[in-house]
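Subgroup meeting minutes
Present: P.N., E.W., G.H.
Scribe: E.W.

1. P.N. recapped why we're keeping a running log of single-chain structure predictions: easier to compare across weeks, and new members can see raw inputs and outputs side by side.
2. G.H. added today's entry (137 aa).
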Amino acid sequence: MKITQRLITDISYKIIGCAIEVHKQLGPGLLESVYQTCLVEELKMRGLKVESETVIPILYKGKNLGGQLRLDILVEDLIIVELKAVEEMIPLYQAQLLSYLKLTSQPKGLLFNFNCENIRSQMVSMVTEEFEFLPKE
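Output recorded in log:
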């Protein structure tokens, strides 16, 4: 499989569709872990490769200091999906996703807040320089 911007965008649309479906089925007000379990299942039902609670090492100046950080979901080894179930999205959550993207060199990340009426309004999409250097098609 050739990794392109289009491939990553197509996978992102599938992930967004899955998040919308989970939110439609469950609504707001549940724990993040419930949404995560259901989103992982929905992604798998759509044929996507999914890893949950992936431990990522903390690399500092080329030295591995151990794995203390956990990604909520990693899809197709390309896209980090971070979930929240909070009253309001704060800049810290976007900073967290950006840090995860930098630490893993993944090209794209999606952040969803399930504690809302309209999940599309509570979604953030981020791309890294790695994405920009990929071929478009």
